Amino acid sequence: MIIQRKDYIDKINPFVNKHIIKVLIGARRSGKSTILKQIIDSLIKQGTPKENIVWMNFELSDYFEMDNIKKLEEFISNKTENIDGKIYLFFDEIQIVPQWEKLINSYFAKENYDIYITGSNSKLLSGEFATYLSGRYVELNIYPFSFREYLEYYEITSDFKSHFYRYLEDGGMPSTFDYRGDDKRLILIDLYNSIVLKDIIQRNNVKNVDLLDRIMRFVMYNISQPFSANKIHKRLKQDMVNLSVNTIYNYLKFFENACLIYQVKREDLQGKRILKHDEKYYICDLGFRQAIIGNNQRDITRAIENIVYLELLRRGYEITIGKVDNLEVDFVCKKQNKLIYIQVSYLLASEETIEREFKPLNNISDNYPKYVITMDDADMSHDGIIHLNLIDFLRDNEVI
User: Quick one: DSSP state of residue 254?
Assistant: First the structure.
């Protein structure tokens, strides 16, 4: 079953037929190709002739020989020869083609082309290409299925809580949704290994694959916990692994660039400055974590925090972790002129837990909205702090 990824389509639609390059960035198999196809379907329904649309997926064997921009340009020229009107170019996983940015720049200079590209590296637009096209492209980050999309895919209309716990383990990679149990785990492991091989090892010429695996497993075990490259260094030294802190930092950046993990910096809310130590990391999809290191239920608060973080990214927030006095605010979320503070926990099961989660928010002196998100059904809002049920938050993207 294929569902319409409406949130993304709605963000792209204002730029369709505009002289601006549409760029979709996200991990492999997170749904970028499907979104391109849905845009193409929409264009055809609106009357665009099929021959005016050129779609190229560079992971398919049909395009393996397109290993330089000259061949690619010849292919496009042959496909579009004698075609009148605007030509729509869809380049899927374009980072595979060397010097692709020069070709895109060339087509952009011709106003009769409408260009869409995808890539599985967050630095796709770094360096020369960004310089060429500064202000001429719009970038959209694509993430695995949200819980709302998960419910829509399986046509679920009730018993949301039990399905949430399943989503917590399954994750949201759409290419795995037709599998269950051990089959799903094997598919997730294979997909994870494909990302590591193609987007990290080969792209960055990594030699020490065992070290790369150790570092990623450390991150998976410690999602939503503050740590630094120095902490990983100390842990690996205990295992008699000899490496530099700089190497660890580089490997972490490789995982970030491949859209597998996200680093979130800490912010001093009183001093209004970014702190340069003890960042947090979150994984792009909990299904990978479940497949590689096991049961998410043993540290469910960490997993829930990861899910909330990803949902806030989908809603367009820039996120830091807040420090107020000696306390931590899980998420400081900014979007245009909007600012909100969020604490995340599994359950407010005791007075001590309630105090722990509400106190950091109470210590913030400004009047911007403050939320505590948990799995509790009862509303425990007080002192101007709004308590939200996690599933209600995930199902309604207008809540925050």
Answer: H
Q: CB–CB of 93/119 below 8 Å?
A: yes
Distance of CA 55 to the CA centre of its chain: 24
Q: Count the domains in the chain.
A: 2
Same domain? 200 vs 307? yes
- Examine residue 91 and state whether it is found in any structural domain, yes or no: yes
Whether 78 maps to a domain, the answer reads: yes
Q: Are 280 and 224 in contact (CB under 8 A)?
A: yes
Indicate whether 156 and 173 sit together in one domain.
Answer: yes
Domain extent for 31: 6-141
CB 236 within 8 A of CB 200: no
* pLDDT for residue 391 is more than 90: yes
Residue 76 contacts by C-beta under 8 Å, 6 or more apart in sequence? 54, 89
Does this model's pTM top 0.90? My answer is: yes
Establish if 400 belongs to a structural domain: no
Are 400 and 340 in contact, with CB atoms under 8 Å apart?
yes
Cα radius of gyration rounded to whole Å, the chain: 22
pLDDT tens profile 21-71: 999 999 999 999 999 999 999 999 999 999 999 999 998 888 888 888 999
